Every structure is written in structure tokens, then in C-alpha cells.
Inverse folding.
């Protein structure tokens, strides 16, 4: 029973609270007006709040209840480019990250205010490089869940190595590491910092375009986290196509990329008119189906796909992928590991490369 002593709230207060608590933001003008009118017209608070909870925006903030994407609008993404357009995109990525590497190198890798260039002391630099160990432990944990381990005697690629924050810890665990980046400014710092720490088993490569991705051959582990998302979708597809195709038998690819963004769309003409002139750090999406097609055509199988918060954007879905290429001793060890666990594991243990014969490259 409602009494006169119970607090009463205006429609404006209810709507503002719903936006802040359920959607994590201040109300936009159109949304505020719509919901306030509903309450003033007699809709119950319960009904209005149910509308918030049923919204796509709320679901994307709570991935545990996002059971499927079947009700989400499709991201319209152009992947096919002419050679001239593709080269222009690579040029844009090079120029953007070269500038970021010169202006604020540490912050461009880990966007925390403590790593602004003006704040970087010797202690801050050590904290920066120490943080890379957490990333490598995450890779080790993912591999371990599936009877695998880092290729200590093999070749590891750190794509988008930046300042060598993660490269350092991969180099301390693997025999040979290839560190790739489009920014010469980042690579110069990485070389100096790793040399100062006694690291001698890293080869640094400056990427200038798609042809340079040929280096991604004969690889036992491909690693890339908080990197792919800063490239336009056709460039992400270029990178993953070469990375997955270049894995050795038994090799694995561990990478993170956003796979859905509410209202995200990409096409070359709009990008050239709007984003290229801005020159800021960008965030991009590649849908899961594109990634799975690229993997299938490269003869790779998905081992694990997990949601993560790496994109740091509430209306986006971001995933960390673990793919493997059947064959080799690593695959045999993993197959035995899973064979002891029945069901799906026994199916994977019987899987052969012939089942996954590569097709033509994805567009």
C-alpha cells in the first residue's frame, strides 16, 4: 500500500535513474522525452523499466544474458577493395600509428593516464613492461585448457608488438620471436628496451603493406591482442588471412578482435571522408562469420572463443579466439589430452587435415 510518507519521484528522475543504472550513461534528449511522456501518459514504472531491460543496448552491456545475436541489426561492412584502395588503407594505418608512436608511445599501447609520456619515469616504464606478463599468462592459460603450451622451441609472432611490452615475455619463454608493427617509432623504443633487458632472440619487422605479411609463414604461435581492432575491417581480414594460412601444422593462433558493434558500419568512401581526416585512434569490427571462413579456408579449427572486455565499449561484442591447425606433435599431444575427456574430444582426436582442405582465399 502506498502511503503519503513514501518517497515520490518525478518522471524526469525515474528516467534519468534508469539510464544511469541500466545503460550506464546520461539520457539522450529523444530517449528522455519518449520515456517521460510514457510515464506522464499513465504507463507504469515497471513497464517502462521492462523496455529498458529488453533493449539491445542493455543486452550488450550484459553479455551473460545476450543469448544470441538474432535480434541485433547487422553490421554493414565492406571488405572488398581495389588494390589502390587497399594500399591507401595501409598507408592510413601506418601514418596514424607512426604519429601516435612519436607523440605518446606508451599511452598509445595501454590507454591509461599513468602511461602518458609526460609521466613516464623509470619506475613507470618498469610497470609498463611488467604488465605484459599478465597477457602472456593469459595465453598460457588458454593453451593449457586444451592440452597445449607455448612453442618454447618454435617460432612465435607478436603482431602489433608496439613497444615490446608482451614481446619481452614471449621472448623469455620461446626460442624465436618475430615482432611486427607498422610504426617505426614504436619499434625503435622496443628494440632499445628489450636490448637493455638482455633480450637477443627477437626479430623486429616494420610493416608497410599487405605484401609484408608474407613474413607470417612457418609460425607456431600467432599472438595479437588490442591491435587488430585499430585497423579497418579489410586490413584485419588481410592480417588474419595470412596469419592463419601461415601456421605450421600443430600451430595455434591466439588473437582478440571486436566482432559486433551496435550501429557500426564501414565503407571505404565514408571512411575516407570522415575518419581519415580525423587521424584519431579508431575502433573497428570484423564479424565472427568472416573470421570462421578465413580459418576454414586456411585449414584451421576453432579451439576456443571467449567474450572479453578488451574493446572497452559497452555496446560492442569482443572475442578472444584460439585456433589450431591440425597435424604435428602439438596437435597429437592435444588430441591425446582431449581423448581422455570423451565426447567432443574424441571427435577432435580423429580430425585430420583432409577434413579441412583449404579453399580459395576469403574476399
Amino acid at each position: 500500500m502506498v502511503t503519503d510518507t513514501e518517497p515520490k519521484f518525478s518522471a524526469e528522475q525515474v528516467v534519468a535513474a534508469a539510464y544511469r543504472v541500466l545503460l550506464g550513461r546520461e539520457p539522450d534528449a529523444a530517449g528522455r522525452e519518449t520515456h517521460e511522456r510514457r510515464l506522464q501518459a499513465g504507463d507504469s514504472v515497471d513497464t517502462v523499466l521492462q523496455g529498458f531491460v529488453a533493449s539491445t543496448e542493455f543486452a550488450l552491456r550484459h553479455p551473460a544474458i545476450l543469448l544470441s545475436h538474432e535480434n541485433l541489426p547487422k553490421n554493414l561492412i565492406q571488405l572488398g577493395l581495389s588494390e589502390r584502395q587497399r594500399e591507401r588503407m595501409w598507408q592510413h594505418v601506418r601514418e596514424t600509428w607512426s604519429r601516435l608512436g612519436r607523440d605518446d608511445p606508451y599511452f598509445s599501447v595501454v590507454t591509461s593516464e599513468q602511461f602518458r609520456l609526460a609521466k613516464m619515469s623509470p619506475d613507470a616504464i618498469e610497470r609498463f613492461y611488467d604488465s605484459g606478463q599478465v597477457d602472456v599468462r593469459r595465453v598460457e592459460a588458454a593453451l593449457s585448457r586444451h592440452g597445449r603450451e607455448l612453442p618454447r622451441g618454435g617460432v612465435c609472432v607478436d603482431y602489433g608488438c608496439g613497444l615490446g611490452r608482451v614481446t619481452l615475455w614471449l621472448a623469455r619463454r620461446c626460442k624465436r620471436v618475430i615482432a611486427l608493427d607498422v610504426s617505426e617509432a614504436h619499434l625503435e623504443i622496443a628494440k632499445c628496451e628489450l636490448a637493455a633487458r638482455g633480450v637477443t632472440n627477437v626479430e623486429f619487422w616494420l610493416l608497410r603493406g599487405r605484401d609484408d605479411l608474407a613474413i607470417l609463414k612457418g609460425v607456431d604461435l600467432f599472438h595479437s591482442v588490442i591491435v587488430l581492432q585499430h585497423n579497418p575491417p579489410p586490413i584485419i581480414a588481410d592480417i588474419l588471412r595470412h596469419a592463419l594460412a601461415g601456421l605450421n601444422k600443430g600451430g595455434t593462433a591466439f588473437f582478440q578482435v571486436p566482432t559486433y558493434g551496435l550501429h557500426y558500419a564501414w565503407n571505404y568512401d565514408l571512411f575516407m571522408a570522415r575518419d581519415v581526416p580525423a587521424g584519431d585512434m579508431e575502433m573497428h569490427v570484423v564479424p565472427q562469420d568472416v573470421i570462421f571462413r578465413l580459418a576454414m579456408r586456411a585449414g584451421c579449427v576453432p579451439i576456443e572463443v571467449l567474450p572479453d572486455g578488451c574493446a572497452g565499449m559497452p555496446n560492442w561484442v569482443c572475442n578472444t579466439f584460439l585456433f589450431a591447425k591440425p597435424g604435428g606433435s602439438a596437435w597429437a599431444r592435444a588430441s591425446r589430452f582431449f581423448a581422455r575427456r570423451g565426447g567432443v574430444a574424441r571427435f577432435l582426436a580423429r580430425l585430420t587435415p583432409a577434413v579441412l582442405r583449404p579453399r580459395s582465399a576469403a574476399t
